[in-house]
Amino acid sequence: MEVKDNMLGIITGIHTKKPLAYRLLAYTFDGRVDNFKAHVVEEAKLAHILEQKNFYLTNAEVIREDGVRRLTGKTGSLSRFEKVTRDGQYPLVVVAEVRNDRNKILGYKVANRDCKIRSMTWDNLDKYCKDILASGGIPIQNAMYVQEKDGVKAHLRSYPGGEFLIEVHVRKKSDTARSIRVNEKKNEELLKRIDEFFSKEQAVEIKKGMSSKVNVKVYANRKFSPKQMKVLREGLEEGVNVKVFAHPDFAVEAMRVLKADMKYGADVRYYLNPKYSAEQLMELGNGVISGIDITKYADPSIDAQEMAEVRLRLENNFWTDYKVERVGEWS
């Protein structure tokens, strides 16, 4: 096995026990995990390489016992690789965590026992982990899958000292996105005489907001319809910063989509524009959430169906399998 300086590696499974050999994925990391090569290496040889070369395994290390070198897991026991589901599935390993430029986890790059590596959205990996647990297996060798409990969402937790490599994908803001400003000072003046300046239906929404102690100055604008006010009020009551899209030019359905996107964690400022329909905003929001470059289709002249086609193609290229070169014998 030839390794270059500063290469990283991760054991993906036990290849054979006589003599003990491991399946190993080697790669480089320069902000991105890349240049994948798969090896089968006997334990003694791998221990020698780790001691002699500038090569680092993220989930194992060399120890000496009675003068004999052997490998031991440092992010969960290597024996976890032997936990197989009823239908023959082995644990995956996390190679890197994929985040956006606001530090939100989008998903993970994972490798299986055959050193095949792919990017998976968190939703897909979460489903995989649940299915593996239900089949009696261990989902991830080098991480702990924590199931949803007491309001805390399901997540992966790295072992102490075994934090994941992090890939950060910087998103581009659409050229069509526009900023919204709310004149709260002006709206505050109108609130002094609610029944005089607002219709009966508008006043109802403002008073409901006052009752629930939200910042009604965000939507105390006579240009908002009562239905628009209702969406903004409900968003504020749900803890959503609706001030971002509090403008009368946004249709009610568009507001509802933007509110839902923000609740899910999407930064709607990347594609905020009242020219988009609710359906178009859904496609843009889904793209931002999945981490793709929405500037490829962020254009009000592109209909929602075409947007969906472009989004799916971009997602398939982003959340995908990666080419891995196999080195040596793999019998």
Task: Give an overview in words.
With 331 residues, the protein is an alpha+beta fold. It folds into two domains: 1-170, no CATH class; 184-317, no CATH class. The chain has helices at residues 43-52, 122-134, 184-191, 194-197, 200-211, 226-237, 252-264, 278-290, 304-318; strands spanning 7-17, 20-29, 33-42, 55-57, 60-65, 68-73, 93-100, 105-111, 117-121, 143-146, 155-158, 165-169, 321-322, 325-326. A five-stranded mixed sheet has the order 4-1-2-3-14, covered by helices on one side. A five-stranded mixed sheet has the order 12-7-8-9-13. Strands 5-6 form a two-stranded antiparallel sheet. Helix 8 (278-290) runs parallel beside helix 9. The longest helix has 15 residues, at 304-318. It is elongated, with a radius of gyration of 26 Å. The mean pLDDT is 93.
